[in-house]
């Protein structure tokens, strides 16, 4: 602390202040002394360190010198290595040049040897050696030959090419000789040499020609049909034999190609072989057309559907066999082309598609399909017509198998079309089936259902409780068995129409599933789906016929429903027979329902009952507004309406709402006082207030003013 | 579910090589394929067009003209809403065959089907059938008439659009009955499709 600070801090004018300042100064002095002695004690340590440092410095200088030496060494080594690798490179180049020179020398020596060797081999009939020489020549580096020419030597290729050509001619001649003699081992042996002399395609062609000659003989044998008149599929068998012979030839060629590694050339074989196959099939086809009288119109020759069936099966079978053959060609070509690159493979596939599309066999297949479709349409129409004839309403007949028969035929026809393997065929048959179902079967049902017999489904009439049972009427009805039969048949047809709609839809699904496998590509699938979709319109036609019948049934019970509605709204109660009176309508309806359920489908019964109950309720409500009631009468109506609603609640849930409205109307009629009307409309008012008041007004004992005052 | 209000089947028939496929492809794909091969059996294409703001799906069935496919093509007549009978204006035989085609249509198609006679290839210089001959023929047989060029895209769009308009009008007049397959009554109608100088109605 400086003196001035001390002087500021302590009052030096006083002794006490001076003493304090002095004390402070003394304390500071002691601290300084201590610090000084501390510094002095560290001086020796620092000296020691300085000494060590100076020693280290000397050592570092030595290390630096050593490092410099090492760096120089590394530099020198690097330069050396660079020099060495340059040398190695030069050596490498020299070595490869030597190797090339050696190869060329070898090539040149071989070239001489080859041309001489080929000549010698031809002379010795050792074509394998000859071909090996040519193969060696073909495998030579073109540079060798060029180099030889550049040195002014006579072009060695000329001699070689000459020799190769001679060999080729020899091979061709020998091959032809062998094929004439049908010397299979020689054929195979010679065929294998062609790819070696770079003439794979020529070899493939020769082999194909040889196989074609052989296959032609097989086809000629296959075409012989002994029993032309036979119903068995003799023509299909013959055509199968023809395409099988062709298939065998192609398989044989493919195996030969595999052995000699001549890939991607199967289309050449197919192209050469195909005309013979086409001719063979065409020959059988011509015989088939004549024997089965396919050119003549089936209608004019009046063939029976039964006699047409074997022919149809045969035609479908023939078509499917030809289709299978085409598939075989595609598959084999694809397998064969798998060994070559993508572009060539695509080219091969295009080639085989073109061969298939352009060949006469395709046209024959189309002709066969044409005949098949014409005949199938005839079969379909005739069979459906026959089924219609059998199902035509006749006296005493109460059942019909129209729909069963027609759909059995439709299914059979579709299955047969699918078995032909042709999507177009399946589509055309589907179209025809749609036509037959819609225009023949559904139309006939519609025609029959348009003319219902008297009361197809009878609802008992309301009977006067006092009146005796209608014994005479019952007796007359029991005698009229014809009418009963007519009714039963009518209901049977109605059920058939309903079943027909379901069947048509099921048939569409089935057909799509069955024919889906034939489709090649989305376009064909779409076509099938669209044609099968035509069955939906057939289904609609059946449904319309069914609706027509349902309408007729509802129409037929209308008068009785009217009578029951009037009975329900009857203001004069039959007090003695109260219970019977209230239950009469539910009983009649129950009986009607039972009869109906036994005859027609549950869904139809429900529809019918809903219509009937709606009709009764509407008419009864209207009738109420025309009658006048006392309390007693109102109670009768209420009781009957309640019973009806109770029955409907159990049997026809759909009509519950409608009946509830009627019950409310009846409840209004049965009130003790108009003031209770509000309670009668609980829990949900189903009648509008003015309408409710109109009903209340039908009570003779209610006052008009009172009703008008009511707040509903 | 596709979004369309009406679906109509349109079937093209006529001799081989009159340009049925080219008409269909011009309309559906907007291109003219040179060197088009013969159609095998039946091809079908779909195009959805808009008429009065409503989507109409045209299902166009392009049939093979060659005789041996007749039994396939015949099966498509019944469900057709419109039949386009095509001939080549530069090839008399294709016109001479029209009565045969009409007989076939009578036999297999619905008698109320919309029928349109189309003379194709108007781009060709060597016309053999004058326009009025075609028109007369169409008028005599109660058909619409139009001359087109698939190559030059002339009247192609119009042909199909007018069919769509007419079929939709029919469908609206009387909803196409679902069960008997018959079209709405067209005999009673006297309005022609589009430009009356071009489309005649007998």
From TrEMBL, chain A:
Domain COG4 transport protein middle alpha-helical bundle span(s) in chain numbering: 160-450
SMART domains (alphabetical): Cog4
Membrane topology, as annotated: Peripheral membrane protein
Keyword field contains Membrane: yes
Predominant location: Golgi
Subcellular location: Golgi apparatus membrane
Pfam families: COG4_C, COG4_m, COG4_N
One GO term (biological process): Golgi organization
GO cellular component terms attached to this protein's record: Golgi membrane; Golgi transport complex
Keywords attached to this entry: Golgi apparatus, Membrane, Protein transport, Transport
Family, per entry: Belongs to the COG4 family.
Protein's name in the database: Conserved oligomeric Golgi complex subunit 4
Lineage of producing organism: Eukaryota, Metazoa, Ecdysozoa, Arthropoda, Hexapoda
From TrEMBL, chain B:
Matches recorded under InterPro entries: P-loop_NTPase, Rab, Small_GTP-bd, Small_GTPase
Protein's cellular compartments: Cytoplasmic vesicle, Autophagosome membrane; Golgi apparatus, cis-Golgi network; Golgi apparatus, trans-Golgi network membrane; Lysosome
Alphabetized Gene3D superfamilies for the sequence: P-loop containing nucleotide triphosphate hydrolases
UniProt keyword DNA-binding, yes or no: no
Membrane-topology descriptor: Lipid-anchor
Domain of life: Eukaryota
Record keywords: Cytoplasm, Cytoplasmic vesicle, Golgi apparatus, GTP-binding, Hydrolase, Lipoprotein, Lysosome, Magnesium, Membrane, Metal-binding, Methylation, Nucleotide-binding, Prenylation
Requisite cofactors: Mg(2+)
Listed EC numbers: 3.6.5.2
Enzyme class: hydrolase
Alphabetized Pfam families for the sequence: Ras (PF00071)
Reactions that this protein is recorded to catalyse: GTP + H2O = GDP + phosphate + H(+)
GO function term, MF aspect, one: GTP binding
Residues annotated as transmembrane: none
GO cellular component, one term: Golgi apparatus
Main localisation: membrane
Family: Belongs to the small GTPase superfamily. Rab family.
Function: The small GTPases Rab are key regulators of intracellular membrane trafficking, from the formation of transport vesicles to their fusion with membranes. Rabs cycle between an inactive GDP-bound form and an active GTP-bound form that is able to recruit to membranes different sets of downstream effectors directly responsible for vesicle formation, movement, tethering and fusion. RAB30 is required for maintaining the structural integrity of the Golgi apparatus, possibly by mediating interactions with cytoplasmic scaffolding proteins.
Protein name as it appears in the record: Ras-related protein Rab-30
